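sorry for the late reply, my laptop died twice this morning and i had to redo everyting from scratch. anyway the thing you sent over, i finally got around to it. pasting the sequence first so we're on the same page, its 168 residues, then the predicted structure underneath. double check i copied it right bc i was rushing
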Amino acid sequence: MDVLKWALRFLTAVTVIGPLCLAFAIYHDNLLALVMPKFDIAEIEMLDAEYIRYNITSSKTLFVTFNFTNPYNVALTVREFSGRTFCYEHKVFLGNFSLTEESVILPSRKSAALTLLLNYTDDGKRHIKDYHYEEECIYVDLEFKTNIQGVIFQGNYTNFGPIPSVDG
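ok and here's the structure:
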């Protein structure tokens, strides 16, 4: 009976503890790579954003709609898309934006429309009034954070628009 106990203990050690020890030996200085594999950031394609239209709701907010094109062979769920807006020309902070829907599904290798709610700050409105008073529309830089399939990405789109100038 004792021989059977020791044989089972040895078998457990070989089948459970052995692979763990091997994994720790391989990834000894980077245990995070054991759980989350490395990938080359250059292999990740940025989702294409193409401006469509805007809809003014008040002097401080507007809706901006654009197409997001999914370059992958699998449908993606965008759960969050938010960030900050800057004047493209002067790099001045204009306000914050967020996705109006709770989540949007981007079909494989196709586009879907996303709508952002852009809230101008008082300083952002003042900047547009002071420096872009004769312009009907301006271009902006978007600094964003997005949650796609539970993975958080950060990035930016430059020279995005045209976005309408707000009334002072």
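The radius of gyration is 25 Å.
thats about all i looked at so far, will dig more tmrw
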